[in-house]
Amino acid sequence: MTRPVQLLLIVVLPLVIVASLVLLARSTGLVGPGAGFVMRAELPAKDAPIELPDVSGDASLPLVVIDPGHGGFDPGATAGGYVEKRLVLALAQALKEEIEAQGIARVALTRSDDRYLLHTERYRIAQRLDADLFLSIHADSAGDVSEVTGASIYTLSNEASSRAAALFATRVNASDTIGGVDLSRESDTVSDILVELSQRRTQARSVQFAEIIEREGQGTLEFHPQARRAAWLAVLRAPDIPSVLFESGFISNQDDAQRIASPEGREAFAEVMARSIRVYFLRQRDE
């Protein structure tokens, strides 16, 4: 090979390699128009008024606010074709209908469609409506560990009851973090005050409601071996409203997912939870 040819290869070959890599990157969407498939989400404006949902039921009855977790660009847990935000909305709507049919309480849903809400917006809706009880509904995923199964009942605590509870709280709370920015972050002082207040009378009532759910659900709902849990969950921070998060099961488990998604599963959930809410309010009336 002559020296001019060698020099030509030294110059041209790198250019050919670079050009090939650029074409490959463009074809896969890594660079160029549309690169990275950027997702855009409309975020709540600072200090924007919260749109309050409709309240149904007799005005003389206590009010329960039901919060279907996630929504909008935040799907929550996903596994096997199941999407948490859709499953929990269906559970919430089934419970609302059951409560209304039995005349147990007035009812409001934090969301009745596929919209995104900050955790602060969710519990502040309950506060602005002067709710007597707040119930947030979720579902979880254990990833590739399909053996994990069963529902759990969470109350607020500044210390997680277990490592699993801490990990769950981290995943749920992360839905308010976009691009590394916590959209609902409050000062440490405010957070400390909220925890302190919640651990008093309101927290005791939250625990009482959780105990009722566990008792009323025995034999009907499938609970995790550690059914009662506590963690620092942002959505439960209202210091003046008894609040519980019901994690309805693991959609990474086929039996759990089918149960949560089925009409029979929704009916069983709604009956147990409506009965639990009735018992809770009867106890508060007698105290």
Structure commentary:
- This protein is of the alpha/beta class and 287 residues long.
- It has eight helices and ten strands.
- It has a six-stranded mixed sheet, sandwiched between helices. Strands 2-3 form a two-stranded antiparallel sheet.
- Strand 7 and strand 8 (181-182) form a beta hairpin.
- Helix 2 (84-102) packs across helix 8 (263-286), helix 6 crosses helix 8 and helix 7 packs across helix 8 (263-286).
- The model is unreliable at 28-38 and 178-183 (pLDDT under 50).
Number of distinct beta strands: 10
Distance between the termini: 99 Å
Order of helices and strands: HEEEHEHEEHEEHHEEHH
Strand content: 15-25%
User: pLDDT below 50 for ≥5 consecutive residues: which ranges?
Assistant: 28-38, 178-183
**The CATH C-level class name:** Alpha Beta
Give a brief outline of the structure:
The protein is α/β, with parallel strands linked by helices and 287 residues long. Helix content is 44%, strand content 17%.
Q: What keywords describe this structure?
A:
single chain, 287 residues, alpha/beta, Aminopeptidase, six-stranded mixed beta sheet, two-stranded antiparallel ribbon, 8 helices, 10 strands, 44% helix, 17% strand, globular
Write the layout of secondary structure elements.
Blueprint: H1 3-28, E1 63-68, E2 78-79, E3 82-83, H2 84-102, E4 106-109, H3 119-128, E5 133-140, E6 151-156, H4 163-173, E7 177-178, E8 181-182, H5 188-198, H6 201-217, E9 223-231, E10 243-250, H7 254-261, H8 263-286
Parallel strand pairs: 1-4, 1-5, 5-10, 6-9
Antiparallel strand pairs: 2-3, 6-10, 7-8
Helix pairs in contact: 2-8, 6-8, 7-8
